[in-house]
């Protein structure tokens, strides 16, 4: 079956984005960042407010009669959830008005971005990665990352369990996110997938930086092949091989991104060195926690 030109334009690129949203005003910055990305990509943003389901929540009543106490606790959980959902929806409407973002339940074409707020009951650890599987891009904002005190939570679950690219937006501006990306290349399949995800944004920067952090006894991958691939997309690139030095890989990576004034880091998550990462703390974990610019990752 052949596709006409209009069909091809509809099928290509990032068209659906999903992000979780809490009820606090401090979430406004993350939402504004996500809206900015959706507007740049002419995509539809689905904002999910995930709250506990009182019917499935385990309730501890101690030595007191359990049935009546448990019912009262579940009713209170539902009341608090409804109030938080209403507050979250109000924040969503406010930010959409502030950013001139059209609200729509689903996209109405490739040239006009839109956003929709939706409430879901359940556990975020399972609900959000499942929702991210049906989106072209998942976004996790700075508040979600900071509140995720156990890294094996929603951040890890989404990156490892969704199968979709994940964009982390720390406490930073995203206006120039696609202008000058740094592509962290270790030759593994995860960074290959991350690069493909970035290319799917169809954004053409002035220049991309292809970086390999060299370690002792390390044989650098062929970065010229990566540059050739980018050239076919009309993207100029600069290759750099930087020695790790006495610091960590994370330090070398983030320093290089700052030296080149990059607006985005593109890298694989839990990729080639996943088992050594688990033992020594993890390049992925430290980059997410310490980066001052957005990160696009894929496992």
Automatic annotation (TrEMBL):
Domain (UspA): residue spans on this chain: 217-298
Pfam families xref list: Usp
Domain of life: Bacteria
CDD domains the record matches: USP-like
Family: Belongs to the universal stress protein A family.
Protein name: Nucleotide-binding universal stress protein, UspA family
Organism: Roseovarius marisflavi
């Amino acid at each position: 079956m052949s596709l006409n030109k209009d069909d091809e334009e509809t099928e290509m690129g990032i068209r659906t984005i999903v992000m979780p949203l809490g009820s606090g005003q401090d979430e406004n910055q993350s939402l504004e960042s996500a809206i900015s990305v959706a507007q740049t990509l002419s995509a539809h943003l689905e904002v999910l407010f995930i709250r506990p389901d009182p019917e499935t929540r385990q309730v501890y009543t101690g030595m007191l009669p359990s049935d009546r106490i448990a019912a009262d606790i579940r009713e209170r959980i539902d009341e608090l959830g409804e109030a938080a959902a209403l507050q979250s929806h109000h924040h969503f409407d406010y930010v959409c008005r502030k950013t001139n973002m059209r609200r729509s339940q689903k996209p109405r074409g490739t040239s006009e971005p839109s956003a929709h707020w939706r409430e879901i009951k359940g556990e975020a650890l399972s609900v959000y990665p499942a929702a991210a599987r049906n989106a072209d891009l998942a976004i996790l904002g700075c508040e979600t990352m900071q509140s995720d005190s156990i890294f094996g939570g929603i951040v890890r679950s989404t990156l490892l369990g969704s199968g979709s690219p994940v964009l982390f937006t720390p406490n930073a501006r995203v206006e120039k996110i696609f202008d000058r990306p740094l592509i962290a290349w270790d030759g593994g399949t995860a960074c290959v997938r991350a690069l493909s995800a970035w290319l799917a944004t169809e954004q053409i920067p002035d220049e991309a930086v292809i970086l390999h952090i060299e370690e002792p006894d390390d044989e650098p991958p062929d970065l010229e092949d990566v540059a050739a691939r980018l050239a076919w997309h009309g993207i100029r690139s600069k290759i750099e091989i930087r020695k790790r030095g006495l610091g960590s890989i994370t330090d070398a990576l983030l320093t290089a991104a700052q030296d080149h004034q990059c607006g985005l880091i593109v890298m694989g998550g839990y990729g080639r060195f996943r088992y050594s990462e688990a033992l020594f703390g993890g390049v992925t974990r430290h980059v997410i926690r310490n980066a001052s610019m957005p990160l696009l990752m894929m496992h």
